């Protein structure tokens, strides 16, 4: 297995996205962050930092929030692309994005 991204909107509303070894390779970290940056812009997300700097973790969380459950439940291709970008950018095998609690772990 290459990795898993779990996106939670509430205790009973989670989306588990598994990227297996048989799937195509993950993007590079730079490609993953570029895709997240593009989605951040397209969704009209705003930086959480007062100085305007947007960290990778902020992009991961805010893109999930802006996309909402409809993208994770109804657009499998988009959700898979999100998971690939997150795994590549954060260089982790398991990532939990909790939108309600504002955490990425």
Largest sheet composition: 4 strands, mixed
Low-confidence stretches: none
> What topology, given as strand order, has the largest sheet?
2-1-3-4
Query: Beta-sheet strand percentage?
Result: 15-25%
Overall geometry comes to: globular
Q: How many distinct helices? A: 3
Following the backbone from N to C, one meets helices and strands in this order, namely: EEHHHEE
Q: Helical amount among residues, as a percent range? A: 40-55%
Overview of the structural elements:
A four-stranded mixed sheet has the order 2-1-3-4, with helices on one face. It has one domain. It is built from three helices and four strands. Helix 1 (29-42) crosses helix 2 (56-74), helix 1 (29-42) crosses helix 3 and helix 2 runs antiparallel to helix 3 (76-90). The model has no long low-confidence stretch (mean pLDDT 92). The longest helix is centred in the middle third of the chain and has 19 residues, at 56-74. Helices cover 46% and strands 21% of the residues.
List the main descriptive attributes of the protein structure presented here:
single chain; 105 residues; alpha+beta; 4-stranded mixed sheet; 21% strand
List the helices and strands and how they pair.
Layout: E1 3-10, E2 13-19, H1 29-42, H2 56-74, H3 76-90, E3 94-98, E4 103-104
Helix pairs in contact: 1-2, 1-3, 2-3
Describe the structure concisely for a colleague:
With 105 residues, the chain is α+β, with helices and mostly antiparallel strands. It has one domain.
